[in-house]
Each structure stands twice: as C-alpha cells, then as structure tokens.
Amino acid sequence: MLMKVPAVHLRLALLASSALILVPGAALAQVNEARTIQLDEVTVEGQGAGQEGAITANGYVATATRSATKTDTPVLETPQSVSVVTQQQLEDRKPQSLLDAVSYTPGARVGSYGFDPRYDAFSIRGIDVTYTGVFRDGLRQVNSPNGLFRLEPYGLEGISILRGPAASIYGASSTGGIVDLISKRPTFLPFREVEVQTGSYGRLQGAFDLSGPVTSDNTLFYRLTGLVRDAGTEIDAVRDDRAYIAPALTWKPTDSTTLTLLGEYMDATTGGTAAYINNYATDAAGNPTSLSVGATRVFAGDPRYNDFRQQQGRIGYEFEHRFNDMFTLRQRTRFSALGTNQEYVYGGSGLTRENNWGIVSDTHLETRLRTGDVDHTILSGLDVSRLSYVSKQGFGVIPIGTDPVLNYREEQTQTLTGIYIQDQVKWQNWRLTLGGRHDWLTSEYNTAGFEYDRDDTKFTGRAALGYVTDFGLAPYVSYGTSFTPNPGTILGGGVAEPTTGEQVEVGVKYDLPGMNASLRAAVFDLRQDNAVVYQVVDATNRQVQLDLRSQGFELEGVASLAEGLSVQASYTYTDARILKLTPETEGKRLTSVPYHMASLWLDYTVQEGPARGLGIAGGVRYVGSSFGDNLNRPIIENEPRTYLDAALRYYLENIDPSLKGLRLQVNASNLLDEDGQVCTSNYCYFDEGRKVVASLRYRW
C-alpha cells in the first residue's frame, strides 16, 4: 500500500498612459453598491488615495494594470497575454482561496491535488507557479520549501495574471507567468462595511473593511481590513480557522508625492495532512503497477495530531514622486516573515517547524521622452531580494499527541540582485517593447553539517511588437526568457539548479467599439529547463528536476453590459511534454495537465419588475482528461469532469428603503458535488465537494 507522507521534507504538500484614471475596488464598489440598476459605462475618478498597483476597471473589464509593464499601459496595448480578476468579479464569486479566484482564468490549472487547503498549488500553461509565480503588489513573495504565504481573498483589490515570462522586469519568476495580488489600499472617500458569513461545515466568519481620510486637509488616508473565521472542512480532521488584519496608510502631501504603508498579519490553522490512503500495488521505484481503487475514503492522518498552524506577517511601503512630466521615481520595499508548525501521523508522529524571513526592494525611474515622432517610456531599475529559512523536522513512534524530537535541520539563504531597463516605444499605431535584465544569485545551503554553496548569473529579456488599430483590434508577437532560483535540495542532495525558460507568443486583442467588452486570443510555445517538480519515489514525495515544453492556445472574453449582464468566458488548449527526466518519460505528457479546459460565468441583475435588484449568477468549469503520472499509464488516468457554481444576491433596500446598504448573498461552488478522484505524480486525491456560503453585508 502506497501512502503519501504529509511532511517528509514537507515539500510533499505540493507534490508537486498617465492620463488613465485609477479606480480602486472600494470606490468602484460604492458606485456599484446600487447595482440593482446596472449603470451605463462609466469611469470613477479620484477615489483612490494611492496609485501603485491599482487596476483600472469597469465591472468585469479591466482596461489597465501596472503589473504587466510596471507603467500605466492599457491592456489593449500590452503585447503579452494578460487577464485581470477585478474587484467586481471577487465580490460576485466570493472566492475562498487563490485557487477559487483564478479558476475562471485561461491557462490556470487548479485542483491537481484535489482538496488541499494547505497550499495554493497551481500551474499556468502547464508550468507550476506555486513557489515562483505569486507576487504581492509587484514584489515577489518569497517562499521556502514548507513556508508559503497563505492568501486571504477579502484583503484584495484584484489580481493581475501575466502569462509567459516576465523576468526582464521582475527577475526571479516562473516561465508560465506571474500572478500579482493587489492589496486593498486607502480611499479618498469614506468607505465602511461589515459582513457576517455562515455556511458548510460549521462556517462562521465576521469581517470588516474601513477606509477614508484621517485629516481634514486630505493628505492622510487609512484603511483597515480584517476578519475572524471558525470553520471546518469536508475532512473532520482539517480545520479552516484564521484571524486576519491588514492596516494601510497613505500620505499624499502633494499631487506629485505619495507614500503608502501596507501591513498584514494572519494566524491560520488547517490540517497537517489532507490526503487519503491510496490502495494500489507499486514497483520498486514506487510507481503503480496496477490500480484497483486508487484513493480510498480512509483519511491518511490522525485527527488527534493533525494541526498545521501558520503565523505570517508583512510590512512594506510604496513611494512615488513625480519630478515633472518627464521623470517619475518609484520604490517598493517589503519585509515578510512566517512560521509554521505542522503535525502529521504516518506510522508514528511527525512534526515540521519552519521559519522564513525575506526582504524585497524594487526601485525604478520612469522616463518619458519624445524623439521626433516617436514616444518612449523608459524604465530603469534595481531589484534586490534576500530569503533565509530554517526547517526542523522530527519523526518517532511515540504516543499520539506527543511532539517528536526535531532531529533534522536544514537552512538556506538566497540573495538575488538584478538591474533592468525597458523601453516602450510608440510610433503611430505601432507599439514596441524591449527589455533586459541581469541577475546575480548567491545561495548558501546547510544540512546535517554539509554545505552546498553556489553562485549564478543570468541575463533575461523580452521583445514584443504590437499594432493598435483605430477600431480596437491589436495583434502582437512577443518573445521572453526567464530565470528562477529554487529553494531547497533535489533528490540525491545538493542545491537545485536554477530554472530557466523561454517563450514565443502570438496573439490578438479586441476591445469592441461602443461596448464594455474585450476579446483575447493567444498562441504560445514555451520551454522550461531544470523545472522542480514533486513525484513519488520509493513511496515518498521527492524533488526532481526536468526539462519540458508546453504549446497551446487560449481564448478569453469578458464583458459588463448596461443591461445588467456580465460575462467571463475562456478556453485553453495545452500540450505539455517532458523533454528530459528519465528515458521512459521523454515525450510523455506532463502529469495532471489536460489538453482542454473551458469556463463560463454569467451574472445578471434584474432591472425592472417585482424582482428588480435580484442578482442571479451561474458558472461552469470543464477540465479535460489527463494522466496521473509522468509515464502516462492508463491505469492512473484522470477522467474529464465538469463543475457547476452558482450565486444569488439581493439588495434589501428594494424591500424597505430603511434597509439601504444591506445585501444578502449566497454562493455555491461545485453545486453538483463532483468529488471524483484526481491523481498527480503517482498519488491520488479527491476533488473538493459542494460548498455553500451565505453572507449578509452592510455598507454605509
């Protein structure tokens, strides 16, 4: 019987232009609060106290985000594939995790490990982005093998997803792309809300979000967001509890200078293991030879010793000063830290304690100039980051509930320094983007008295050309490379090789004239070398490195129409193949990456009649078949599946004007309770079943 060890090296959990108007989510939410009558297309001005990282959006349709180029560039004119999860989408779908939030985004594969609330493990275009693809407010989110920051979606303005390499300006990041999580920021106008939730598995949650000016001269603004949750999950031994608080301050002494402080603290507890016992025979290498049951419904851990507590915090600032129309200086800096205490049972009791600390700073100068008929937006910057972590682990056949002696220790420090320059050239309808960056990496790793040090240096770049027509059509072609250091070790000892990659993409974007609607299409061909993945070896999850190639195309459409209808639709075709791992796996499809994925979300608000103000929404997500191991054996194949989601909401002021500001909403995910088996890297799990969350919110 093969069984997943929930914490041996803890990595097992993953098996794996300036004229644009900035619209913060809270301000937009105030306008959309009366969404009982859908507003005509409108842009809200002057609501946000801060600028960095803001998203310009109208309903479901984003028109600009700084995440793609670090400058105010319209999405239409950005020659690379970009998707945005707007504040309105977050409010309508009520995602409970990062995986929920990106599940309707093209190219994003979520659910490869079934139901597992411990980590936000997912891939983009077949490339894992869990460790190296998640950014927060334009800065990389430093992670260690067992220390990955957990996300609270209630603390977000929105999410920008840039598919394909972005290392030319961001440095260490995944070839598949980056997911930039945009934190809530202070607003110019007062904004206040409280919300209570209840739902499946005894869920109880209270949340608040308060913002507005502090001083009468409108130079200092605040925001305070927080929640407390006590909840279970479909596995009795796995909790979903957390306490979260996120303060923010913006000081804007002049129109040219802005300083924003962003903080967060979260204390969260879930399960040390969320796996089920697998029942199939294996060969000497731990690979399945025959499959009779796969994942059983027998929990692999012990509820008496299964808590996984994580305490995390971050504090940072964003500074911007515009000297004149030509020069703007920006700096972002963040310090972060987290500590984990993970309990599990596998024959005996296991314990992993890990702490990491990281500091990331990015300083760049934006220069706008004109040479003849050509406009340039030049970005030159310096990016420095440092990660340190210590992991201690222990295991012993001792009474359940007793902590084993922590007799294994590993620690690592990584320092990454990069300088970069980017030029966005605009001539008539043509848009040319050229960028390059050089990184220096040092890594110091120590375990059991053995030291493994390495130094690497790498140049990455991006070149893209687009043409923007007067009627909203914008074809483009782009090429980019990536470079990513890997924390931890690989099978056999030693520090993992840095991961490198490259991609060619051809696409077209179309903003429908006279409509708040956009269509996007892209064809891509990428290669990644020395990618770190997890697979079962000798009945234990281990790190291995492989070369792979992923090819495919994506389609996406979003719209928010004046008649009360919002639409989000996508289709993805991905063919991810192993180029180098073992002779038996060369040319095989990468585990758990389906050829086909598609999604559709429709949201409608009744405009007239007795049901005026009633919001009705429904979504469908299709995930095609895939293989459960890298040998592509039919005995461990994942069948295609379809998930249905739904939502209802109603503004109670339509019943009684005295109830203005109250909204009742119910969201259901996986409405038909599709909880079949899903296998990845030789181990099988179960999808998360039906979940219903009801909320009552009051805004004033």
Largest sheet: 22 strands, antiparallel, barrel
The N- and C-terminal alpha carbons lie at a distance of 58 Å
Radius of gyration: 24 Å
Number of distinct helices: 4
Query: Which percent range fits the helix content?
Result: under 10%
Low-pLDDT runs? 1-47
Structural class: mainly beta
Q: Quote the average pLDDT.
A: 89
Which term fits the overall shape? Answer: globular
Number of strands: 38
- Strand percent estimate: over 45%
List keywords for this structure.
700 residues, mainly beta, 5-stranded mixed sheet, 3% helix, 57% strand, globular, disordered N terminus, membrane
Describe the structure.
The chain is mainly β. The chain contains four helices and 38 strands. The chain has a 22-stranded antiparallel barrel. A hairpin with a 2-residue loop joins strand 20 and strand 21 (374-396). Mean pLDDT is 89; it is low at 1-47.
